[in-house]
């Protein structure tokens, strides 16, 4: 569960169900997008439609253990790092989801 707080009014703004083993959150402020990663290998990409309204734009499957992420606020690329006992550490780079949706003919959200 991801809980969003308003630090001025000291109240809970939203409570969001998220995937298995969550432990990483990033925010792209200019696009108002939340990225939530978990050790099961899923990244939720959510739009903040208003102060207390969020919706899932995409859920991207990565690899088990890929739960460290960061977003570049200029390019909006998402970087997901992962490692295991059996392979060398790797970083996956994802283009902005809105760009991918446009390329696939699904429009933008």
How does the major sheet shape up? Answer: 4 strands, antiparallel
Mean pLDDT across residues: 79
| Gross morphology | globular
Ranges where pLDDT stays below 50 over 5 or more residues in a row are 102-109
Number of helices: 1
Alpha-carbon Rg, integer: 14 Å
Strand content: over 45%
Provide an overview of this structure.
This protein has one helix and nine strands; from the N terminus they run βββββββββα. 6% of the residues lie in helices and 51% in strands. Strand 3 and strand 4 form a beta hairpin. The two termini are 23 Å apart. A four-stranded antiparallel beta sheet has the order 3-4-5-6, with no helix packed on it. The protein has a three-stranded antiparallel beta sheet with strand order 7-8-9, with no helix packed on it. The protein has a two-stranded antiparallel sheet with strand order 1-2. It has 109 residues and is mainly beta. The C terminus is likely disordered.
Question: What key phrases describe this protein's structure?
Answer:
109 residues; mainly beta; 3-stranded antiparallel beta sheet; 1 helix; 6% helix; 51% strand
How are the SSEs ordered, and which strands pair?
Elements: E1 2-6, E2 11-16, E3 22-28, E4 33-38, E5 42-50, E6 53-61, E7 68-71, E8 78-82, E9 90-94, H1 97-103
Antiparallel strand pairs: 1-2, 3-4, 4-5, 5-6, 7-8, 8-9
Summary, kept brief:
The chain is mainly beta and 109 residues long.
């Amino acid at each position: 569960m991801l809980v969003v707080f308003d630090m001025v009014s000291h109240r809970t703004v939203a409570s969001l169900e998220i995937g298995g083993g969550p432990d990483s959150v990033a925010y792209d402020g200019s696009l108002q997008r939340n990225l939530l990663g978990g050790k099961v290998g899923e990244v939720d990409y959510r739009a903040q439609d208003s102060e207390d309204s969020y919706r899932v734009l995409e859920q991207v499957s990565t690899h088990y253990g890929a739960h460290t992420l960061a977003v570049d606020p200029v390019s909006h690329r998402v970087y997901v790092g992962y490692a295991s006992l059996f392979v060398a550490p790797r970083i996956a780079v994802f283009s902005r989801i809105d760009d991918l949706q446009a390329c696939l003919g699904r429009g933008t959200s």
